[in-house]
Amino acid sequence: MGLNQHCDRDLITILFQDVDGLQVFKDGHWISIDPIEGAFVVNFGYLLEVISNGKLKAVEHRVVTNAKASRQSLVYTIFPEKEMIIKPATCLINEANPPHYRSFKVEDFNRHFFAVSNNNDEMMKFMLA
Questions:
Q1: How confident is the model at residue 74, as a pLDDT?
Q2: 20-46 average pLDDT score
Q3: Closest-CA residue to 36 (of 19, 61, 51)
Q4: Is the pLDDT of residue 67 over 80?
Q5: Where is the Fe2OG dioxygenase domain (predicted)?
Q6: Residues 6+ apart with CB under 8 A from 6
Q7: Is the pLDDT of residue 1 over 60?
Q8: Which pairing describes strands 22-26 and 29-32: parallel, antiparallel, or unpaired?
Q9: H helices of 14-95, where?
Q10: How many CB atoms lie within 10 A of CB 62?
């Protein structure tokens, strides 16, 4: 079945994968992420991109089907409470590095995320200062 290309809405996603299927979009190409026994994949989400003021980018990824084996994944997400305000970390802001993202409540972010079906361009419009 797979999963269409998207960025995660959380801070961080920790993934354990047992077979091939995960791909990330880098430099205009889809790159397969081969599973490594005993290892986890860590994806940065939109909210961490905002907090890091763009130093860490949300990872655009997808899951493709594997015709040779069924795929099972264990996923753990780190996500703040809906009442929290997300904004660039103060320690990363100065005259040389102004805020690139606006402040917003997590619940407003979630509402927009689901309204635009995780459209990356629309999410960036929502998040940018």
A1: 84
A2: 93
A3: 19
A4: no
A5: 1-80
A6: 60, 61, 62, 118, 120
A7: no
A8: antiparallel
A9: 46-51
A10: 15
